[in-house]
């Protein structure tokens, strides 16, 4: 498998055919900023809230990137999952599908989940950002009913093509973010808002502890939180972590 075009974009890149979890392996291995691990299949991948998922060989792109950004404030690390989600959204558009970003970091096509991102703080300022992009799965091979793949959207995309599209978007965004000291107002916040289909939607936010907020998502603030306006209340709710459900009204 020729990954040379992707290798040229990062500090180092390793490909393995099968692994348990690229995030776990990369955390154990370590490396310099922009060290990348790619797998043809994962057997014990995890999503947000520790949900397990797996992928058959060649059917998806599993990629983790180790980051050691030098930022003015550690609070800016909260933007890295959004940065990865924005990069993948732009990559999928480059590949030919009309993707949008669902806050904080799912990539949707026609309101169906195509990709998920998981960001983990390893130590201090070391972060690993993992992404799983569905490439070839058919509907019965997907883990949830409202998921999709590039194949189901009518696209034939190889793992090398998908990886290069993602890294070609991720690396410049990341380098610009770091050069700005982690200031989201230098372009990342406006990009995330532009790509985010959650903005303007009626949503249900399910937070840790199972508390809920139902209202309209109206903005992403400077801390990367989703701002929700609740009917009849003058206060905006700022959601920093949780599951967001896009509510549909007939």
UniProtKB/TrEMBL annotation:
Family matches, as Gene3D superfamilies: 2.30.30.100, Bira Bifunctional Protein, Domain 2
Keyword annotations from UniProtKB, A to Z: Ligase
Pfam families xrefs: BPL_C, BPL_LplA_LipB
Listed SUPFAM superfamilies: Class II aaRS and biotin synthetases (SSF55681)
Any one GO molecular function term: biotin--[biotin carboxyl-carrier protein] ligase activity
Residues of the BPL/LPL catalytic domain: 1-178
GO CC field: cytoplasm
PANTHER family, A to Z: BIOTIN PROTEIN LIGASE, BIOTIN--PROTEIN LIGASE
Protein name: Unannotated protein
Organism the protein comes from: freshwater metagenome
């Amino acid at each position: 498998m020729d990954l040379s075009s992707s290798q040229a974009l990062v500090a180092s890149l390793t490909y393995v055919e099968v692994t348990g979890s690229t995030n776990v392996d990369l955390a154990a291995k370590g490396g310099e900023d922009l060290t990348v691990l790619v797998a043809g299949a994962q057997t014990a991948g995890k999503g947000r809230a520790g949900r397990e998922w797996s992928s058959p060989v060649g059917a998806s792109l599993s990629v983790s990137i180790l980051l050691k950004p030098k930022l003015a404030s550690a609070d800016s690390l909260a933007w890295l999952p959004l940065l990865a989600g924005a990069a993948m959204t732009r990559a999928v558009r480059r590949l030919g599908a009309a993707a949008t970003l669902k806050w904080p970091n799912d990539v949707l096509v026609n309101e169906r989940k195509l990709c998920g991102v998981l960001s983990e703080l390893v130590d201090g300022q070391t972060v690993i950002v993992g992404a799983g992009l569905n490439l070839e799965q058919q509907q019965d091979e997907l883990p949830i009913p409202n998921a999709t793949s590039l194949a189901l959207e009518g696209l034939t995309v190889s793992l090398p093509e998908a990886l290069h599209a993602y890294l070609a978007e991720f690396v410049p965004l990341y380098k610009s973010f770091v050069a700005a000291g982690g200031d989201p107002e230098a372009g990342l916040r406006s990009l995330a808002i532009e790509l985010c289909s959650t903005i303007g939607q009626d949503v249900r936010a399910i937070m840790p502890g199972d508390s809920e907020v139902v209202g309209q998502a109206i903005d992403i603030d400077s801390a990367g939180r989703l701002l929700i306006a609740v009917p009849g209340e003058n206060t905006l709710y700022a959601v920093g972590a949780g599951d967001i459900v896009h509510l549909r009204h007939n």
